[in-house]
Amino acid sequence: MIVDRQGRRFRNLRVSLTSACNYACTYCVPNGKRLVAAQDELSAEAMARGVAYLIEAAGIERLRITGGEPLVSPKLETFMTAVGQMGLDDISLTTNGQLLAKKLPLLVDAGIRRINVSLDTLDASAFRGIARGGDLATVLDGMEQARAAGLKIKVNMVPLRGQNLDQVMPLLDYCLERGYELRFIELMRMGHLASDSNAFLQQFVSLQQLLSLIGEHYEYLQADAPVDATAVRYAIPGLGHFGVIANESVPFCRTCSRLRLSSTGWLHGCLSSSNRHYVGDLLDKPRHQALPALQRLLVKALGDKQEVAFSGGATVMKIIGG
Q: Where is the Radical SAM core domain (predicted)?
């Protein structure tokens, strides 16, 4: 087991199945160009071997499949079939929901029981303005179908000053009524926002601002969350829960257990570090050759983690998922 001096180790693996996406969200893709798959993306089989090797080398317990948008990837079925047989405690998926209804039978058959849906507004016009793609009604219908199929749903919203702050309460009410847990995600100083402080500050909405707004409508209490959780979680008695991933306001670096594998074979130990470690060439090697080399890279990746708080990074979220 690889552990650092703060007692952190990698428990949660996030795999970006593809960098392709059918959206071009303003906070992710400033130039508005829809993302396509990288030419050097790993095969589904290689990525599945990567997960298997990381389970053994790092002690990975939970897997989240991300993108880009994972549901657009032709590798999805093969990859999910393989990882579903690896005995992980939990496998989940993050999606923008545009193809959710279409892919739902595949997800259910593969054993997915939890999904996170990225949704920043319930206003159709604002939706098109932020996502620059897709259709709101299709997303909402996909979520309803997933709920009917028994999947647990969390909704991820990035509140943005001047764009969707007026949607905080409508989206919270919508989620509480349906049993979805809404997660507000503070804007992060990544990619183009890492070098443009003015753009970041003009859009940033803090934990305290969100709680103040919600407090005008509901009484809430802080709820328990796992030690390595990224979200500060709250209960609204008798109605449900919501959370805030408060990267700026309440840093969670001291307990971070996340490791990320990109679709092109790079390990990222920390979103706030530009360091990355290539493992693509190891994934075609037999286990006895791959594991020692992989463990050496994992020591480096764990060393990339910030000690206290996220300080911003040039790494672009669209490449390595959430």
A: 5-224
